[in-house]
Amino acid sequence: MPTTENPPQTGYAPVNGLQMYYEIHGSGGTPLLLLHGGLFNIDLQFGELIPGLAATRQVIAADFQGHGRTNDIDRPLRSADLASDVVGLLQHLDVAQADVFGFSVGGATALDLAVNHPELVRKLIVSSASFHPDGDRHENSEAVGELTVEMIAGTPMEQEYRAKSPHPDKLQDLLDKLGTFDKGFTGWSDADIEGIAAPTLITVGDCDAVKLEHAVRFLQLRGGDVNGDFTGVPSSQLAVLPGTTHFFGLARTALVLDVVLHFLDAPTPEG
């Protein structure tokens, strides 16, 4: 994995019964918080992106419950609980506000933060995540629910889990929890999405687990899908990444960096 010029600051934040692993790369500007997807970790999800992101700002990356170097606890995986963990992490680091970039499970968690803790989020990036279950392709949820350790044997996810987890024998437990991620959550209402204070960048692959029409609806609720030549370019935007699946949603590093950095560096509209 590429690394920034200086090694990151690393540590563990005691939050909600977890020892939540985090890394801090770079310096300056509004901190950018990175939240990875299910079965991934900091390195697997963002390792290729961090050098470019941290070149001009401080980047904080964290491993979720049961992922990477963070321990698991007797609690299902729910975006609301993961968001609570992130709030605790930011308090531990004395960060009053951040830009938040979440992918998949991390995107759902970032969305929860923006809805329930708006004061913490300056700008929001939701990648390959829906705001309502209707936006998900059903075959993806079914496939995740059937995952076993044998099915991912030899993959980077299995290797990273066993190498970094404080309990490397509990991979099946994590897979089972991912199979019921946010079970029973009915999603956010249109009014919830419209009420988000933070300018929002939505990214989705053109062959993602999230339906394209859902991503467009997400944009419309955030004030987008307008004729910008006449009305101006909205502060919330949508990027559809070509030839991109859910699993490889952030794999086109140069393209993702261009889209994300342009959004983060744009002036924040007053009010």
Q: Please, could you describe this protein's structure?
A:
This protein has 271 residues and is of the alpha/beta class. It is 35% helix and 20% strand. It contains eleven helices and eight strands. It has an eight-stranded mixed sheet with strand order 1-2-4-3-5-6-7-8, with helices on both faces. Strand 5 (98-103), helix 4 (105-116) and strand 6 (121-127) form a beta-alpha-beta unit. Helix 3 (79-92) packs across helix 4 and helix 5 packs antiparallel against helix 7. The chain is globular. The protein starts with 8 loop residues before the first strand and ends in a 6-residue tail after the last helix. The relative contact order is 0.14. The model has no long low-confidence stretch (mean pLDDT 95).
Layout: helices, strands, pairs:
Elements: E1 9-15, E2 18-25, E3 32-35, H1 42-46, H2 50-54, E4 59-62, H3 79-92, E5 98-103, H4 105-116, E6 121-127, H5 138-145, H6 156-164, H7 171-179, H8 190-194, E7 200-207, H9 212-221, H10 228-231, E8 237-245, H11 253-265
